[in-house]
Amino acid sequence: MSKQKNQTVGVVGLGYVGLPLAVRAKERGYNVLGFERTQEKADIINSGKSPIEDEYLEENLPKNPIEATTDATRIKECDIVLICVPTPVDEFHNPDIGPVRGATESISQNLKLGALVVLESTVNPGVSEEVVRPVFEADGHEVGKNVFIAHCPERINPGDPKWNVTNIPRVVGAFTKEGLKKAVTFYESIIDGKIKPMKHIREAEACKVVENSFRDINIAFVNELAKSFDALKIDVKDVIDGAATKPFAFMPHYPGRGIGGHCIPVDPYYLIERAKRAGFDHKFLRTSRSINNSMPSYTVELLQDKLNEVKMPLNGTTIGVLGIAYKPNIDDDRESPYYEIVKELRKHKAEIISYDPHIMRRSDVDSLEELLEKSEAIIFVTNHKEFDKLNGEMLKKNDIKVIIDGVNSLDKEDIENSGVIYKGIGR
Fold first, then answer.
1. 427 CB contacts (<8 Å, ≥6 apart)?
2. How far apart are CA 59 and CA 283, in angstroms?
3. Last residue of a domain, one of 199, 231, 256
4. Which helix (H) or strand (E) holds 83?
5. Percent of the chain with pLDDT over 90
6. FRET label pair with 332: which of 2, 16, 50, 372, CA 20 to 30 Å apart?
7. What integer is the mean pLDDT of 315-327?
8. With the C-alpha atoms ordered 187, 192, 198, 204, is the resulting torsion angle positive or negative?
9. Do 299 and 418 belong together in one domain?
10. Sign of dihedral through CA atoms 316, 415, 259, 86?
11. Which of 165, 181, 199 is a domain's end point?
12. Closest by Cα among 372, 369, 375, 367 to 350
């Protein structure tokens, strides 16, 4: 452990990826500096508190405090620098590589000679060669001599009780053999899972977009099945559960109100756009993205159809939206389908009340009970554990006419037996 104690790891970007990595590196004996844009967030971290709802951070940050700073010149103190900044898309789904470029420029201008720089941000194949390396070379740095550049695409699953920053296997690519060795050695020192070296840095970049495109395609398939089975009067969840009894060559995915998070709804666009520049059209990926992007509006269409059955319009009706986060039991609302659902409801001039116990800053009421009391119909967006108590009796008591189960997790039979109209996605 003595070698780690003599080395300083810098983490640029202390979000859902960077902060757990920083804490893990500190836990494993490294000196750690975290670089953040806002002093407010740096102050929270320096107080030993996590600005993110995360079980690992809440347990380990107080025991392994890191120093967070907004002073980029302190990158000069770092032997290893990890780039963990966002890679978003704009409203037209065009990739925005600006945060990666900006972080790279800050590092290059404040580089400790001989440092290892690892890009963790998810990017399309080619970014390390076309964006990151040229920044260092423009500042006079020689890759493989006074800077070593690698790519280890982040893998993190917020809210997962089993897989976290400590144990998820990783892949690593670099420009030189020495750089690859340095990167593999570092990740093996902080992660208990297997570290797989890739032959080329471009291969490492491709791994992450392939992983998330795979998920996107399979979810698009079952989302399309849900629409088809709605027309055919077949319960898609029952069918998928039945198909999943096959012990080989089938992997169950389930439909829903749309895909959220910073990975699956974003990463395919990085591959689509980069391949387009190379002259290839990813028709399959574009179709999958189109299907999955249609699900929030489809969810609102289902609500409108069911309200029509009780002769109620969307216009002027008070709709309770349960859940803002993109997945259960976390406070992460990045790319959450909630926002598109709300946008669609506003188009129809519905009155909207939102509640998420994990994101109170965006909630309109203080409790599930208050939302039910004030609503006439419900769209169930996120199945937080706090909503487990929701049942037909509660809905009936509050005179809820319709509930749309956007994640197919409620007890359909119980709700229908109470006299409330239930509609899931494909069931």
1. 226, 229, 235, 236, 237, 238, 405, 408, 412
2. 44
3. 199
4. strand 80-83
5. 95
6. 372
7. 98
8. negative
9. yes
10. positive
11. 199
12. 375
pLDDT, tens digit (0-9, with 9 covering 90-100), for 328-347: 999 999 999 999 999 999 99
Same domain, 57 and 158: yes
- Predicted local confidence at residue 5, as pLDDT: 62
Q: In whole angstroms, what is the distance from residue 38 CA to residue 70 CA?
A: 7
Query: Total domain count for the chain?
Result: 2
Q: Beta 351-355 vs 377-380: how paired, if at all?
A: unpaired
CA nearest neighbour of 344 among 375, 302, 384? 302
If pLDDT is split at 50, 70 and 90, which confidence band does 2 have? very low
User: Could you tell me which of 143, 151, 263 has the C-alpha nearest to residue 198?
Assistant: 151
Record the tokens describing residue 424, joined without a space: 């899931």
Question: Which position among 84, 152, 207, 263 bears the catalytic label?
Answer: 263
Distance CA 76, CA 112 (A): 5
Of 78, 49, 61, 58, which is closest to residue 22 (Cα–Cα)? 61
Distance CA 355, CA 173 (A): 43
* Residue 146, domain member (yes or no): yes
Is 207 annotated as catalytic?
Answer: no
Q: Which residues contact 252 (CB under 8 A, 6 or more apart)?
A: 240, 241, 243, 244
Neighbours of 277 (CB within 10 A): 10
Structure tokens at 84: 């963990």
CATH of the domain at 394: 3.40.50.720
**CB within 8 A of 326, min separation 6: which ones?**
259, 260, 261, 332, 333, 334, 335, 336, 337, 338, 382
Tally the C-alpha atoms within 13 A of residue 297's C-alpha that lie toward its C-beta.
7
Q: Considering the domain boundaries, does residue 16 fall inside one?
A: yes
Q: At 238, is the secondary structure helix, strand, or coil?
A: helix
Phi, psi of 61 (to 5 degrees): -65, -45
In whole angstroms, give the CA distance from residue 364 to residue 368: 11
Structural domain containing residue 304:
292-424
Alpha-carbon distances of 83 from 18, 66, 292, 415, rounded to whole Å: 8, 16, 29, 48
End-to-end CA distance of the chain: 55
**Please, which residues have CB within 8 angstroms of residue 120's CB and are 6 or more apart in sequence?**
17, 18, 21, 82, 83, 84, 151, 152, 153, 154
Task: Indicate the residue type of 46.
Answer: N
